[in-house]
Amino acid sequence: MIRVLLADDQILVRAGFRALLAAQPDIDVVAEAADGEQALKAVREHRPDVVLMDIRMPLLDGLAATRRITEDPALAEVKVVMLTTFELDEYVFEAIRGGASGFLVKDTEPEELLRAVRAVVDGDALLSPGVTRRLIAEFAARSKEPAPASVLAELTEREREVMALVGIGLSNEEIARRLVVSPLTAKTHVSRTMVKLGARDRAQLVVLAYESGLVRPGWLG
């Protein structure tokens, strides 16, 4: 079972998400929270697999709550998907930098929400359609002089190649076509790269690709 925690200050929103998720045979809603402080307490108590976290909440907003979750080694297995009413680029950037594994607008289709929950549990990053390229462009625009590439020393040449392709926004299927390998092989390379670098998920791998200098601004073709 995939254990999910709902964090949103609107009770009707939580009720709608709970009804959708609870109807799935592989998903269990273990707790709800109405603000960021409640969310942190509930995460520590229930250790869910996925937190659906609203960005705008009282006491402690979703971005700050997410940073506290992802910075806590004891909660390393908890994945956070950010939810908001608008696809605002600054929110996307801060959410992924803060360790979120995904970002969805609240009016997304039910099937997309369910796919998001299952995808992040499998270690994939999930962003609303149209966000990924803008996110990468934002990293490019904000990137400073890259850090020393010593962080990449443990990677094989193929793993660096795969990481660079992840960094420019390609999916496993697109990477497989580019390298003429199977999607399973591409996924294996991505997974091994994340393990070696200690990346929580694919989204953090994108951050590391830019910060290490493996991907540079302008490599968006």
TrEMBL record:
<feature type="modified residue" description="4-aspartylphosphate">
    <location>
        <position position="54"/>
    </location>
</feature>
<keyword id="KW-0238">DNA-binding</keyword>
<feature type="domain" description="Response regulatory">
    <location>
        <begin position="3"/>
        <end position="121"/>
    </location>
</feature>
<dbReference type="GO" id="GO:0006355">
    <property type="term" value="P:regulation of DNA-templated transcription"/>
</dbReference>
<dbReference type="InterPro" id="IPR058245">
    <property type="entry name" value="NreC/VraR/RcsB-like_REC"/>
</dbReference>
<keyword id="KW-0805">Transcription regulation</keyword>
<dbReference type="InterPro" id="IPR011006">
    <property type="entry name" value="CheY-like_superfamily"/>
</dbReference>
<protein>
    <submittedName>
        <fullName>DNA-binding response regulator</fullName>
    </submittedName>
</protein>
<dbReference type="Pfam" id="PF00196">
    <property type="entry name" value="GerE"/>
</dbReference>
<dbReference type="InterPro" id="IPR039420">
    <property type="entry name" value="WalR-like"/>
</dbReference>
<dbReference type="Pfam" id="PF00072">
    <property type="entry name" value="Response_reg"/>
</dbReference>
<keyword id="KW-0804">Transcription</keyword>
<dbReference type="InterPro" id="IPR000792">
    <property type="entry name" value="Tscrpt_reg_LuxR_C"/>
</dbReference>
<dbReference type="InterPro" id="IPR016032">
    <property type="entry name" value="Sig_transdc_resp-reg_C-effctor"/>
</dbReference>
<dbReference type="InterPro" id="IPR001789">
    <property type="entry name" value="Sig_transdc_resp-reg_receiver"/>
</dbReference>
<dbReference type="GO" id="GO:0003677">
    <property type="term" value="F:DNA binding"/>
</dbReference>
<keyword id="KW-0597">Phosphoprotein</keyword>
<dbReference type="GO" id="GO:0000160">
    <property type="term" value="P:phosphorelay signal transduction system"/>
</dbReference>
<feature type="domain" description="HTH luxR-type">
    <location>
        <begin position="148"/>
        <end position="213"/>
    </location>
</feature>
